Amino acid sequence: MTYSDYRKVFKQLKSKPVKMQKYIKHNSPKPRKHGRATKKCTRCGRPGSYISKYDLKLCRTCFREIATSLGFKKYD
């Protein structure tokens, strides 16, 4: 089960509110305070290859797509 799949079980637990509250308490993803998953790309949401320099908050693939519109020049 991935971190976003815990909501799929809600269909089965709609008629059992006490069990649903217990399930949510123990299976919902924990808020991250440090580590790789705290910083995500603001454009696509990818946690890896994050560029925070110049307050960009983008992953490298999104940066490559919009770098020229931001004013960056590619040097040969």
Q: Give the helix/strand class.
A: mainly alpha
Proportion of residues in β-strands:
5-15%
Strand order of the largest sheet: 1-2
Tell me the total number of β-strands: 2
What is the count of DSSP helices, taking H or I runs of 4+ residues? 3
CATH-level-2 architecture of the largest domain: Irregular
Largest pleated sheet: 2 strands, antiparallel
Shape: elongated
User: Which CATH C-level class of the largest domain is it?
Assistant: Few Secondary Structures
Brief descriptors of the model:
elongated, 30s Ribosomal Protein S14, Chain N, 76 residues, mainly alpha
Detailed description of the structure:
The protein is mainly α. It has two domains: 1-30, no CATH class; 34-76, Irregular (30s Ribosomal Protein S14, Chain N). The chain contains three helices and two strands, in the order H-H-E-E-H. It has helices at 10-13, 17-27, 60-70; strands spanning 50-51, 58-59. It has a two-stranded antiparallel ribbon. It starts with 9 loop residues before the first helix and ends in a 6-residue tail after the last helix.
